[in-house]
Amino acid sequence: MWLPIAGLLVGILLGFLFSVEIPLGIVKYTAIAILAAIDTILGGLRARLEDRFDLPIFVSGFFANTFFAALLTAIGDLLGVDIYLGALIAFSIRIFGNVGFIRRDLVEGYWRGLTRQERGSVFSGRQSP
Amino acid sequence: MVLSERTLRTFRVSRWHVAFALLLATAGFLAVTQIRNAVLIRQQLNVPPDRLQELAFRLRQQERNRAALEEQIFTLRDQLGDYERGVAQDQEKLEDLRRGLERLRILAGLAAMVGPGLVVELDDSPQPLRPGDDPNTVILHYTDLQVVVNDLWASGAEAVAINDERIVSTTGINCVGTTILCNTKRMAPPYRVTAIGDVESMQAALERSDGSLATLRGFGFPVKLARGSRLVVPAYRGSFRFSHATPVELPK
Prior knowledge:
Distance between the termini of chain A: 21 Å
Distance between the termini of chain B: 126 Å
Radius of gyration of chain B: 51 Å
CATH superfamily of the domain at 112-233 in chain B: Protein of unknown function DUF881
CATH topology of the domain at 112-233 in chain B: Alpha-Beta Plaits
Structural class of chain B: alpha+beta
Largest sheet of chain B: 5 strands, antiparallel
CATH architecture of the domain at 112-233 in chain B: 2-Layer Sandwich
Order of helices and strands of chain A: HHHH
Oligomer: heterodimer
């Protein structure tokens, strides 16, 4: 687990080291894109915990979701429709949902692990069939 | 194969670890950049970033308004220029009218005039009346004044006044009891007739041997004649009234 956390820390560090200025006009869209990215990462984590993780889907989903979230919001603004708000609500719901599932998976896994350890099992986590 | 299976498993595990790490790095970088930008915007513009669109819209609106107002200013300035030119023209016309009016006032005797001329002073005769004498022979009559004024007009007077009462087109010289009425003013002797005009011509007309002054002198009235280079004839102070007469052709 140390590698993803290290990656997050490196990203945050890079963000502080390099100040990239986002043009005023697209700040709104990048905000939605970041929400989409967080949602995808949480989704990937959940899939990982639920043993249905697929790397290509995860990676492609990350980029596609961020890109389309920003694009749809921009198109919504062009059309004069607040897709921004829709995307905000949709991603918020998904993020909360994912957080909830991750929490449940983690708690379940923890309890199962405990029971397995009580049973004297060598394996832990959700890799065992 | 156990080793290879192990390595495969560790490889697989590290693969998703690596993917997560990279994507988390990306997301972290993006999030931090976004937050920093948002903070920057809030600090610099003092508005939350989600209101930027609305503010931009308002800005554009105001810019359009400003452009419209500027255009209005230009047209108004043009109009003002037109008006100023018009006013200048009007002022020229007004100046013409004013000059015309001034000329008419001078012609009507409504302006005080100054210039060279004669002053004729007439008075009742100082000769004592003996019993049986006709008092008319020692009293100046309005006709005497009329004759003098007529002589002055005939010999080139341009402005005439009797005792500072201007002779105008409607002036009559009349007798009211023992006084003389000129315009609406009663006068008593001595009478001082001031005339501006050709001095030589007027004097010659008055002083001729059978002229009005010679007759008056013959009857023993004290007559004084003086020249002046800067005589002042005052303006007519009365009013002109036309209750019955109207101009044949009304001025446009």
